[in-house]
Amino acid sequence: MRKSNPSRDLFQILNLVGLTLLALTIFLPFINLIAVSFSSPSSVVNGDVGLWPVHPTLINYQFVFQDKQIWNAYGITIYITVVGTLLSLIMTSTLAYSLSRQEYKYRKAVLMMVMLTMIFSAPLIPTYLVIKNLHMVNTLWALMIPAMISPFNLIVMRTFFMGIPNALIDCSRIDGCGEAGILLRIILPLSAPIMATMALFYGVGFWNSYQSALYYIQSRTLMPLQIILHDMVTHDNLSTSSGDLFESILQNSPFGVQMATILVATVPILALYPFLQRFFMKGMLLGSIKE
């Protein structure tokens, strides 16, 4: 039986109270957002909504789901997230594998250059000029290519690859497998935890991408969801071409529509966490510790 330690017990109690309060500060605003999105416009205007919907209605979601601008932005964001994440995983894994191999004599120099980008980031104007000279302004490639390799993700993945026994790689080479075959047939199948973790990091980053679109995208039809959401929340830039009922709602209480749009934009990326959670901690632990 473990002996009671007053100091340790007090620390555990304070730790539990602190973490509970921290969780509430994160969780309660989200509950309020859900309640507002399902409440009637008059209840929102009067400030009657707390943690539970008042006069529940789906009118705010009806507006969101019939707005073509939102659905177009949704499609753009999904495309950027899926394609950008796949490209990022390909580029990051290939470079991380190269930097993890002892026989690559320039690996330290390349790794040093990668780490410098974590300390000194490129200024905005030179970066914009590079994107412009590559003819990527006002294209979706400008939202994906510059963010394809994250230095932090690269270092974590490289550390994970270095933990794979060299004997497996040497045996594969003896059997006639090339470097690409080793990566595809040996390294990546053993790296499901770190690949899932990096996919989550890159996916969340592309889904929440805002500044890149603000700098490089000019056409309204190419705007991702976060730009449309920003305009809706900060400037009440909502479409009113959907009938008198929706026009009345937007004129009197656009807040409910804004909260519904935020929820619709947030739920898909949150839905990924339960599926990747079992890989997440394992991937981060194994990718951050080198034996």
UniProtKB/TrEMBL annotation:
It is found in: Cell membrane. It comes from the Bacteria. The chain crosses the membrane at residues 12-35, 76-97, 109-129, 141-161, 182-204, 255-276. SUPFAM superfamilies: MetI-like (SSF161098). Pfam families: BPD_transp_1 (PF00528). Keywords: Cell membrane, Membrane, Transmembrane, Transmembrane helix, Transport. It is a multi-pass membrane protein. Residues 74-276 form the ABC transmembrane type-1 domain. Its main location: membrane. PANTHER family: ABC TRANSPORTER PERMEASE PROTEIN MG189-RELATED-RELATED (PTHR43744), POLYGALACTURONAN_RHAMNOGALACTURONAN TRANSPORT SYSTEM PERMEASE PROTEIN YTCP (PTHR43744:SF9). Belongs to the binding-protein-dependent transport system permease family. This is Carbohydrate ABC transporter permease. It comes from Paenibacillus radicis.
